[in-house]
Specification:
The protein is α/β, with parallel strands linked by helices. Helices cover about 40% and strands about 10% of the residues. A seven-stranded mixed beta sheet has the order 2-8-7-6-5-3-4, sandwiched between helices. Strands 9-12-11 form a three-stranded antiparallel beta sheet. Strands 1-10 form a two-stranded parallel sheet.
């Protein structure tokens, strides 16, 4: 077997299961999981109807590039959403089976093992960034996202010598687990650094359509390129998905878009990888990308949930003001995120994810820490995935508040 498999860390939910092992929660309380970012709102019905209507397409092999109609629908959506001058559906767009597999596969295709192969990832982070890097023979560079930097990576703290070893930088905006949004100015600065130090930017934007201020949608990497006049999107690739936007995680449908040279090379890799999107899923995806009414309704539902939950928890927990995504990132009283999660499950039958499971200590990476010893930036916090229906999520918040008040 590939010896790099031994470098993989346990997945956060494996660690959570071990943490909860042997604990018996109260039987009279129904279990409420706030752990996995799986949307529980109703999936977009028109997409499901289209999927069924085109079910006989399962009798045909799909092409890796997808149909021209799907690529056109994606290009139209992205151009409108991010104010682009245009996006060539033939050369700058590629359908993928969700962002998770695409992110993993892109690192395998892009990383050059014949030279220093570091991949910069936000810390805390979605663990696929790290696993993909390790299995491609690379080394993660953890960029801490703390309160003092708005829970975004401090790219100015990275020295030039370190940047020269970096081949890929991952951006996650809106962020998982923090919900922080990277502003256009920071994206533009990152593009400048990419030109200076010769690295690629991979922007995970799968939460881009879940935002709390309807008048302020999160910007994207291609939008930053367009503002700089880089309509070839050189060095840049974005990853989008219908999982969160349209409550269709089981459809496994998304896309990558950007630099045509990167898209072409990635398509070549995927032709061998064998991960073309089935034709019924392509038709359903066209329906989903072409409708915004259901997405606005989805945002309205999340706004209601966030308003109710933050009102309940604000008196007993501190957390960054939610901007986007469906996560809350509160600090736990007492600072021990593992103990908090285990005891909360034992007392209230509510599951939350310890923040330390999503982060890594970033020692010995050459980055200035402003006089502070590097520790796990996820420690002392928990991630709450507010994905269930309103009544269930509110009940979980009330149990958390009651649990904290009894501990004080």
């Amino acid at each position: 077997m590939n010896p790099d498999l031994d470098a993989l860390k346990p997945y956060p939910f494996e660690k959570l299961a071990a943490l909860k092992a042997g604990v018996t929660p109260p039987e009279h309380l129904a279990h409420i999981p706030l752990t996995i970012g799986e949307p529980q709102h109703a999936p977009f019905e028109a997409a499901l109807e289209t999927l069924v209507a085109h079910r006989h397409g399962m009798a045909r092999y799909p092409a890796t590039a997808g149909t021209a109609e799907l690529r056109g629908a994606i290009a139209d959506w992205a151009t409108h959403r991010f104010g682009l001058d245009g996006l060539d559906p033939a050369t700058q767009v590629l359908p993928v089976n969700g962002t998770r597999e695409a992110i993993f596969a892109f690192v395998q295709a892009a990383l050059d093992r014949n030279r220093p192969a570091r991949v910069a990832v936000p810390n805390p982070f979605y663990q696929i960034y790290e696993g993909a890097t390790l299995l491609a023979g690379g080394k993660p560079l953890y960029l801490e996202c703390r309160a003092e930097t708005g829970f975004r990576a401090d790219i100015e703290a990275v020295p030039a010598a370190t940047w020269r070893e970096v081949q890929i930088v991952f951006v996650c905006s809106p962020g998982n687990p923090t919900g922080a949004v990277t502003p256009l100015a920071e994206l533009e600065r990152l593009i400048e650094l990419a030109d200076e130090h010769d690295f690629l930017i991979a922007s995970d934007e799968c939460y881009s359509e879940l935002y709390l201020d309807e008048a302020s949608p999160p910007p994207g990497l291609l939008e930053a390129c367009a503002r700089l006049g880089r309509h070839d999107y050189r060095r840049c690739l974005v990853f989008h998905s219908l999982s969160k936007r349209s409550n269709l995680p089981g459809l496994r449908s998304g896309f990558v878009a950007g630099d045509a040279a990167l898209v072409a090379a990635f398509k070549r890799y995927r032709t061998y990888h064998g991960c073309a999107m089935s034709l019924p899923v392509q038709h359903a995806s066209i329906t989903a990308w072409g409708d915004e009414a259901h997405v606005r309704a989805n945002r309205d539902a999340y706004r209601e949930t966030f308003a109710a939950v933050t009102d309940i928890l604000a008196p007993v927990m501190t957390f960054p003001a939610p901007e986007a995504s469906f996560y809350l990132w509160p600090a736990v009283p007492g600072g021990d995120d593992e103990a908090f999660a285990r005891e909360l499950f034992a007392k209230e039958n509510v599951s939350v994810l310890p923040g330390s499971y999503m982060g890594r200590p970033a020692a010995d990476d050459g980055i200035a820490r402003r006089g502070r010893v590097s520790t796990n930036p996820g420690a002392g916090r928990v991630r709450l995935a507010l994905v269930a229906e309103l009544d269930t999520t509110v009940e979980a918040a009330r149990r958390i508040r009651s649990f904290i008040e009894r501990r004080l």
